[in-house]
Design a protein that fits this description.
The protein has about 300 residues and is mainly alpha-helical. The chain has one domain. It has eleven helices and four strands, in the order E-H-H-H-E-E-E-H-H-H-H-H-H-H-H. Strands 1-2 form a two-stranded parallel ribbon. A two-stranded antiparallel ribbon has the order 3-4. Strand 3 and strand 4 form a beta hairpin. The longest helix is centred in the C-terminal third of the chain and has 42 residues. The protein is globular, with a radius of gyration of 21 Å. The mean pLDDT is about 95.
């Protein structure tokens, strides 16, 4: 595919404008030394810098026309070709191949399972269960039910978290209460498409391959992660009223039903994004294999 300068500039401008809805407020808060307990997660737990999130990448197989396309040659992985500038397929290294194989296996395994909607967001509660005073993860936010009330919720409900990167932040007291004991090794066998964190992680799997994932797909995954993050924190033990957010009170039957409905909706929204990533990862790996065979 070849894009004229007018075409790729329009796509670039649209992507930058779209992402600055999130990056510009974050950068302003950071310049003032302010923390945001909901949105900072998108730029701290996920390690993709705001400037990189704003940077438009066409993805593989796209030739950028016009004189201005030469500026892409200042970026790692681009080359000049007949008619313009494109990503250099050779920049998809053996390291990229190893990562892509692992992630593709994880994505395919997750996509092949039915969503499980019975965890009710208790992972956030388990992260503060019986935590010593002064060590709460988001100290600027009070606990809605206080420490004792939070502990009582964890003790009254079954904790069933299968996402390793959530489980690893459980307190020592909470870990034995989890029905599952996930590890990095068991991650491909436990990831399931109803999990909020597995669906937020689609953003991570989009940016991990850098310029080889087109920015439109990256942006879709980021916006999904941002929307899920709000539910994640609204269902947490924290009081977000100072930020203008009402709770999803999972300590009640009504709240758990509300959480499960929202969780199911996010699973439906994530499914086509997961499939787009799967198709893209397969294409990249197939092309890398063909280059190896012809070398």
């Amino acid at each position: 595919m070849r894009l004229t300068e007018q075409q790729w500039r329009a796509r670039q401008d649209a992507h930058v404008e779209r992402m600055r809805r999130w990056t510009a407020p974050h950068q302003r808060r950071r310049s003032r030394g302010e923390r945001h307990p909901v949105l900072d997660f998108l730029f701290t737990y996920y390690s993709h810098p705001p400037a990189q999130l704003e940077r438009w990448q066409p993805g593989p197989g796209v030739v950028l026309g016009g004189a201005a396309a030469r500026r892409f040659l200042d970026r790692k992985g681009y080359r000049e070709t007949d008619g313009g500038v494109e990503l250099d397929p050779a920049a998809f290294t053996a390291k990229h191949v190893r990562l892509a194989r692992y992630v593709l296996g994880l994505l395919e395994a997750t996509a092949g399972r039915s969503p499980r909607l019975s965890c009710f967001g208790l992972h956030e509660w388990a992260m503060v269960y019986r935590q010593p005073p002064g060590q709460v993860r988001h100290a600027q936010l009070p606990l809605r039910l206080g420490s004792a009330g939070t502990d009582a919720v964890v003790e009254s409900l079954e904790v069933r978290c299968g996402h390793y990167d959530a489980f690893r932040f459980f307190t020592e007291a909470a870990r034995p209460r989890n029905v599952l004991q996930p590890s990095r090794q068991t991650q491909p066998g436990l990831e399931q498409p109803g999990c909020l964190h597995a669906n937020m992680d689609l953003y991570k799997w989009a940016y991990k391959l850098g310029p080889f994932v087109p920015s439109e797909l990256l942006g879709d995954c980021f916006e999904l992660a941002a929307d899920i993050r709000l539910l994640d924190m609204r269902a947490s033990p924290y009081d977000l009223s100072s930020l203008g957010h009402s709770p999803v009170p999972v300590e009640t039957a009504k709240g758990r039903a509300e959480y499960a409905r929202a969780q199911a909706a996010f699973a439906r929204r994530a499914a086509p994004l997961r499939q787009r990533l799967i198709r893209h990862y397969r294409l990249l790996l197939d092309e890398a294999a063909q280059r190896t065979e012809s070398a």
